[in-house]
Design goal:
The protein contains no helices and 19 strands. It has strands spanning 6-12, 15-20, 26-30, 37-42, 48-53, 57-62, 68-73, 78-83, 89-94, 102-103, 121-126, 132-137, 141-146, 151-159, 165-167, 176-181, 184-190, 196-198, 203-204. The protein is globular, with a radius of gyration of 17 Å. 35% of the residues are buried. By secondary structure, the chain is an all-beta fold.
């Protein structure tokens, strides 16, 4: 794990800023997006970071001097972006309900978009050894995807009874994930067979 002396804040809708984590001093701004920036993420080695925006682009920046080194044109607005553990792939969550796998060095897409969700994908998580990706969608489902054939694993759609699934963090040992929808958290076990099984003790949140 790298020791990163920076953090990134979204200081207005279209711009992010790199800040010194110890002093709180603003170091530099990431300028260039023309619409809302929803997500910024450091690369595994801490030398780069990505920003995803409603302007249909993913941008890759150098951390030390905020030089823009790569811009990827997407087919719709970006909600979130994750790096693969080795730093070679970028996987965005998009308004068009698809999942893409992009080369982080040259911006080439590895395969055609994966389909399965029927509404906006808000966020996603990738396992620590890059074997699967979990996605959270406005279609009230969390889904699990195999990163090798870039397709959903069999029987991997977990339906929520409450509106919209916003987050699906995965535990480091890949045994558990949590799907967070409106007013509810669901703790889910991923068995070795690949099946998702919800626990019975879901956590409900009050409305309002």
């Amino acid at each position: 794990m790298f020791n990163n002396p920076y953090y990134v804040s979204l200081n207005n809708l279209t711009r992010a800023a790199i800040t010194d984590a110890e002093t709180g001093a603003a170091l530099s701004a990431l300028n260039g997006h023309s619409c809302d920036v929803h997500n910024v993420t450091f690369s595994p080695d801490g030398l780069k970071l990505t920003s995803g925006s409603s302007d249909y682009t993913i941008r890759v920046w150098r951390t030390d001097n905020t030089e823009l080194i790569l811009q990827i044109a997407h087919q719709d607005g970006i909600r979130s972006v994750v790096w693969s553990p080795e730093g070679q792939q970028l996987v965005p969550a998009s308004n068009d309900a698809t999942i893409d796998f992009w080369n982080s060095l040259n911006g080439y897409r590895f395969a055609q978009p994966c389909t399965g969700h029927t509404d906006i994908i808000y966020s996603l998580s990738i396992s620590s050894v890059c074997t699967f990706i979990a996605t959270a969608s406005a279609d009230n489902t969390a889904q699990l995807w195999n990163t090798k054939p870039h397709q959903p694993q069999s029987g991997q759609s977990l339906k929520h009874t409450t509106p919209r699934v916003y987050h699906v963090p995965v535990s480091h040992d890949r045994a558990l994930l949590v799907s967070a929808s409106l007013w509810r958290l669901s703790l889910v076990r991923k068995f070795d067979s690949g099946l998702l099984r919800p626990y019975s003790n879901n956590i409900k949140h009050r409305k309002g």
